[in-house]
Amino acid sequence: MSIHPDDIKRVKGQGFLNNKGTDCFNARILTTNGNVSTEQIRAIAEAADRFGCGRVQFTSRMTVELPGIPYDKIAEFQAFLGEHGLYTGGTGPKVRPVVSCKGTTCQYGLIDTFSLSEKIHEKFYIGYHGVALPHKFKIAVGGCPNNCVKPELNDLSVIGQRYPTVDLEKCRGCKKCQVEAACPIKIAKVTDGKIFIDPAQCNHCGRCRGKCLFDAITYTDGYKVSIGGRWGKKTATAQPLGKVFTTEEEVLDMVEKVICFFRDEGISGERFADTISRLGFDYVEEKLLNK
Hints:
Blueprint: H1 5-12, E1 16-18, E2 24-29, H2 38-51, E3 57-58, E4 64-70, H3 74-82, E5 99-100, H4 113-126, E6 139-142, E7 156-166, H5 178-182, E8 188-191, E9 194-197, E10 217-227, E11 239-240, H6 248-265, H7 272-279, H8 281-289
Parallel strand pairs: 5-6, 6-7
Antiparallel strand pairs: 1-2, 2-4, 3-4, 7-10, 8-9, 10-11
């Protein structure tokens, strides 16, 4: 291989990963939560034929990689993508491209995942692109507690929630309670003649909404924000912050606080899960919620 290591590092920062032992690279093409137009799909296919080896690979984080891009064709390749509104990137110790499930269109989705993840992408992947962090920082948005996109294995996760509140005066204690029957995790129970939904066990999926014939339950739509998840050699499940977030603005504000906290209090080479472990979750939560 004739390329200097400094040049390999430089283009890696632009989203080009060296094909081991060759002068060619995998080009990582960004998407916004996996959404691309049909015109862009055609452009990606053309780029794979013109500059690569005619193959397209899809990553676990909803980006696209084209293998076999020669080093001396990178600039031309990037210019071609730019003509179609496509860009390379998604590497380095920075906020990474955001992933989301299809909660916007899924029957179980509780929030507009596409809208929120696009706002996070624009504000923090693009807007914070020049902000160096101690390590990579991954964000995922899930539409409901089904967790299809595995959001809680990310440094920060946002999950749609529907919080139930029981009005015991309206509850008739029906022998065949429709709320109890609708609960997919079987924690809603009629106890002593009244419906009881254990707040410590409820996952706030909202599947019981509209089932009570006497409107004994009202619901608050919101978001659960969790921090400190990670996948890889060492895994960690994100821990939820002790606050009910009810607007996108609150969520975006908290995402910014978390990123800035990691920037300021993390140690170079340390994932956010390790920062939380080192400082203690209670300390981190206090700083984030009371800042």
